[in-house]
Amino acid sequence: MYIVKLSNELLSLALSEFFSIAEAENMDYKIHKRIDEFLFFISDEELIKLLATRSALLIELGRVIDVVEENDDLYGIIRNLNSSEVSNSCIDVDSIRGFGRETAYNLQRMLSTIGIKWRGCKKRIKIAIVAGLAIIYEIVYRRREVKFYSREPHRRPCYRPGTMKPTLARALVNIARVSSKKREHLLDPFCGVGGIALEACNMGLQVTCTDIDRKMIECAKINGVAYGCENMVEFIEADSLYSIFRDGFFDAVVTDPPYGIQSIPRSQSLLKLIEGFIYNSYYVLKRGSHMVFATPIHLEDHIDRILHTLNVSILEKHLNRVHGSLTRVIYIVKVL
């Protein structure tokens, strides 16, 4: 039995990412139960390695040792664990969103009396207290900021304000259900400086990047070369309103259309821009593939009406608050 702890900040998107990664590579698994941001499941090692490699919103991944009630003798349970579980292990106690804070504090103090290590251990065991339960598991993967640090927008050789952070960009690629094993091909028709392309490239996917702004394309090329993606990503100056690709060519469309007034071409409304993008995406996508994109929440009803004119299914919608004046809806749409 395995367990994942997902990002509570973007929980609905994190859940979707987990299922999408498994679906993209046709991995078998069985969900046992879910407790808040924790998901218990049964699978083989191949899915575990894939999740650790591809995920953006997965915080921890571990092997379940036990699940007991918070009021049980946790100190005694730890002492009675098989010696192989405790030997050369560090043990962390965590109260999730304040659940069992006092219990966690007292347990941490008691564990220090039996010489439990905090550093230099070969294994790390976590006791997470949430909703009256204590979940005990051995951590096999923990997301570290270094995974995305070098690709943060301000650390790229070519930077533009308002660029999507790599964690969210990677999650959008994952929920498009594209296969790294098959080196599937995705299109980003509003690529900007190439943030989505960098994450897709990092996962071994082929990418075509287009943007109407020549400066953006030049910037995206610079970033692509800097991160070793020049052989995986094609950069094209093109208008998203006019398709230059043959029908049924791409395995996915993943993009973040412009929102600001200064980002939208003159004499073009945002709604018309997104409407044209949706129709073009529908035709260049293979049947059964997905388009993933974000729009400001005030356009949601209009976007829904546009999508309902096409042979597609809106699989999911996720809210993402960008700042005080902007909340966007992230669409996951399947082309039928």
Q: Please outline the major beta sheet.
A: 7 strands, mixed
In angstroms, what separates the terminal alpha carbons? Answer: 35 Å
The poorly predicted ranges are none
Q: What is the chains' assembly state?
A: single chain
What series of H and E elements makes up the topology? EHEEHEHHEHEEHHEHEHEEHEHEE
Task: Kindly describe this structure.
The structure is a single chain. The chain has two domains: 2-142, VC0802-like; 150-335, Vaccinia Virus protein VP39 (Rossmann fold), CATH 3.40.50. The protein has eleven helices and 14 strands. The protein has helices spanning 11-24, 45-54, 74-79, 83-86, 101-112, 146-149, 166-175, 195-202, 214-226, 270-284, 300-307, and strands spanning 2-6, 29-35, 38-43, 58-69, 89-95, 123-130, 133-142, 185-188, 206-211, 233-237, 250-255, 285-296, 312-323, 326-335. A seven-stranded mixed sheet has the order 2-3-1-4-7-6-5. Strands 10-9-8-11-12-14-13 form a seven-stranded mixed sheet, sandwiched between helices. Strand 5, helix 5 and strand 6 form a beta-alpha-beta unit. Helix 7 (166-175) packs across helix 8. It starts with a strand and ends with a strand.
Keywords:
2 domains, VC0802-like, 11 helices, alpha/beta, elongated, seven-stranded mixed sheet, 336 residues, Rossmann fold
Sum this structure up briefly.
Helices cover 31% and strands 33% of the residues.
